[in-house]
Amino acid sequence: MKTIYILSRLLLIFMVGLSACSKSPVIDNATMLDGDQIFDPSLYNPVKYLVSAAIPNPTTAQKNTPVLIAVHGYTATTFEWDEFRAYSSSKANILLSQVLLGGHGRTYEDFKKSTWQDWQEPILTEYNALRAKGYTNINFAGSSTACPLVMDLIKNGQIGANGMKYILLVDPIVIPSTKILTLVGLVGPMLGYLDNNNTAGEEGHYYHFRPQETLQQLLDLTVKTRKDLQEGYSIPTGIKMKVYKSIKDPTADAISAVLIYKGLTNSDGTKVDIEMLDSELHVVTRLAGRENVTQHDKDIQTHVFDDMYKMIEQ
Predict the structure, then answer these.
(1) Residue 268: what pLDDT?
(2) What is the pTM of this model?
(3) Secondary structure of 93-110 in the HEC alphabet?
(4) Does residue 308 lie within any of the structural domains?
(5) How many domains, the chain?
(6) Is the pLDDT of residue 314 over 80?
């Protein structure tokens, strides 16, 4: 039975990959993020996106103002947190850093050769830059793949009690909903890449094509995250964590939240806060660019934003 299961999955991936046909996709430079014309705006206007760049010499009041480092997921860009920026723009007591993952927001070839450690680096860079400038109330909000990236920083002691207050995880991917990812090492080199099936509103903000090399990096990251959680570790003293998880997430299985609940503890040994959301979306905090967004989706997004803001502003 196990052999039949594996063969069926291989066949499924092969069928999905038929649309690729070639290991080198045909990229439309005029519309696709993958091309050499469209880049994430944070690359050429960092002052608008990073607090460390926008405020080179913070005042004492600014140093004590809550800063939220918001980080997107795999194949995405800073666009994924634009809606929270719009939400928080009228909140004078929060500063927002939208961090672009390494290797993202650039050409397909740049993305293709990046590692998950490359993706992670800008998160730590902005955190350390804020610490160096004296900020005392640093917080983190991550969606999807950003979550295991920051969890790894916690596990390695690179983010700790030095100014960090809240860590908020939105639809963290520890177990993928689709099992295709687990077989990428077997058939990925044969396929070359997979189509991301972006909507018209997502094109230019998300990679249209997923290189098999980056899928392998994502697999490696999730496997490492699961092993770390199986071993168990604690959040540093003074930091609080909350996880928001869609129940019917098509990308990150809901059991991801269970593994975090079992494997991560607060410094006093208590469990981290998990909130399961009645949603069928992956990354409920991003609705822009999606098709068929309902009022229920909007209500959930508002609830999560309100909850995040209430914690951070304290």
Answers:
(1) 86
(2) 0.91
(3) CCEEEEECCCCCCCCHHH
(4) yes
(5) 1
(6) no
